[in-house]
Design a protein that fits this description.
Elements lengths: L3 E2 L8 E2 L22 H7 L2 H15 L5 H37 L3 H34 L30 H17 L4 H39 L1 H8 L1 H26 L3 H7 L1 H10 L6 H10 L4 H14 L2 H17 L6 H14 L9 H14 L3 H13 L1 H23 L19
Antiparallel strand pairs: 1-2
Helix pairs in contact: 2-6, 2-10, 3-5, 3-6, 3-12, 4-8, 4-12, 4-13, 4-14, 4-17, 7-16, 8-9, 8-13, 8-17, 10-11, 10-17, 11-12, 11-17, 12-17, 13-15, 13-16, 13-17, 14-15, 15-16
Main location: membrane
InterPro entries: Na-dicarboxylate_symporter (IPR001991), Na:dicarbo_symporter_sf (IPR036458)
Membrane topology: Multi-pass membrane protein
Length: 442
């Protein structure tokens, strides 16, 4: 018999099995197998506090931990990162394909609309950052100059060993395959193929629950431990403290604007919706990876009343094509570096750079530093950045990569809210909202 889950909007209960498989929540108080007090412990120390603890411990222990011990965590991070890279294309195929299929007729239009809104959001954030940077940074950085920094990879703590885990196919192949198969499923009668992809989704969700989510705090701890021990983060943050504060202020404005639109689309309090996305923001802050944060982002979006079919379709897609925070940060730092290195500021070239950056970001892998690596060619070709300037840009960007990533994934929830409003009456799939009172581990 189908489990009945109450709607988060107070609507009549809907069968949980009719939507995408929900990620299992922590032990419910109604569960007779749960030992007394166990549920309370899980809720008090869920994913968010574990991430915060991992960040604090990584910074504190990075000041005193011997390098020999730190290399153990670096080795783990290398293996875990490789496994993530292997799993990311499978996550996209396993979540996006059945989600598109469940949208029914009209899924192709929804796909195009999602991509269009993601590009519009990315470009608007870049233009906003460009306008504010041109207005404020010349005064804020007046008389400042800077030399190039070392490549942060040169001072990283070496792992004891590395394990290569090549993915079955790359991210772009996974996206195109998911689009083709998902739209194809909407054109044929429901059968074994649709059920097979739903079973694949269940497998992927179980892997996320059993491996990815529990190990994320340890991965985050290793990242901050390494950043603290190699010292590069302090050099870059000290050099660009003024720019960092401006970037952070702009990300706050961007998120408030995005969720103002999302709140209008869903008929909900935008500040409450933004608060619900906090676990996703903090997870991205620790991992610096949009792809690694997909499970948490999707579940937070569902708690905001996004139907499972929409969340499982929009979030993995936007993790690759919606990089508004990264575009904002790259644009601001590019202007800052041009100022402190004495390069001329040409408005036309910079506007063209932002428009092209929105396209280039689509090809950026959802891994730490992926956005700046994809943008390096555009920096050189359109803005005339030398190798030293590109190296400085990479060093500055990677040191605070997580803030842009956190803005990216939080904005994905806003895109999902807009697509929820647009999907009403335009697709034939079941868009009932399943109850998600508590995200697994959050």
């Amino acid at each position: 018999m189908d489990n009945v889950v109450p709607s988060s909007d107070g609507e009549q209960p809907t069968p949980a099995a009719s939507a995408a498989p929900a990620v299992t929540t922590a032990a419910s108080p109604a569960s007779p197998e749960a030992p007394p007090g166990r549920t309370a412990r899980r809720r008090r120390f869920g994913l968010l506090p574990r991430i915060l603890l991992a960040i604090v411990l990584g910074i504190v222990l990075g000041l005193v931990m011997p390098e020999a011990i730190a290399r153990v965590f670096t080795t783990f991070n290398g293996v875990f990162s490789g496994f993530l890279g292997f799993l990311i294309p499978l996550i996209i195929v396993g979540l996006v394909t059945p989600a598109i299929g469940e949208l029914g007729h009209g899924a192709g239009k929804m796909l195009a609309a999602t991509a269009g809104f993601a590009y519009l959001s990315t470009v608007l954030c870049g233009l906003f950052a460009l306008a504010l940077s041109m207005l404020l940074l010349p005064r804020m950085l007046s008389g400042a100059s800077i030399d190039s920094l070392d490549n942060p990879e040169d001072s990283a703590i070496a792992a004891y060993f590395e394990i290569e885990i090549p993915p079955v196919f790359d991210v772009m192949t996974a996206l195109i395959l998911s689009f083709c198969l998902g739209i194809g499923l909407t054109l044929v009668k429901r059968g074994a193929l649709q059920e097979s992809f739903e079973q694949l989704r269940t497998i992927i969700v179980r892997i996320i629950e059993a491996i990815i989510i529990p190990l994320l705090p340890l991965y985050i701890f290793g990242m901050f431990l390494g950043l603290t021990m190699n010292g590069q983060i302090w050099t870059v943050i000290g050099t660009f403290l003024t720019v960092i504060l401006l970037v952070f202020a702009m990300t706050v404005v961007v998120l408030l604007a995005q969720y103002g639109v999302a709140g209008w689309a869903m008929g909900r309090n935008p500040l409450r919706m933004l608060w619900t996305m906090l676990p996703a923001y903090m997870t991205a802050l620790g991992t610096s990876s949009s792809a690694a944060t997909i499970p948490v982002t999707a579940e937070c979006a569902k708690r905001n009343g996004i139907p499972d079919a929409i969340a499982d379709f929009v979030v993995p897609l936007c993790a690759t094509i919606h990089l508004s925070g990264s575009t904002l940060k790259i644009t601001t730092f590019a202007v800052a570096i041009m100022i402190v290195t004495g390069m001329p500021l040409h408005v036309g070239a910079l506007v063209g750079f932002v428009l092209m950056l929105g396209v280039v970001m689509i090809a950026a892998p959802g891994v730490p530093g992926g956005a700046i690596m994809a943008a390096a060619g555009v920096l050189a070709s359109l803005l005339g950045f030398s190798e030293a300037a590109v190296g400085l840009m990479i060093a500055a960007y990677i040191a605070i990569d997580s803030f842009g990533t956190a803005t990216n994934v939080t904005g994905d929830g806003a895109i999902a809210a807009v697509m929820t409003k647009l999907s009403r009456g335009r697709v034939s799939g079941d868009l009932q909202v399943a109850g998600h009172p508590q995200v697994h581990g959050v």
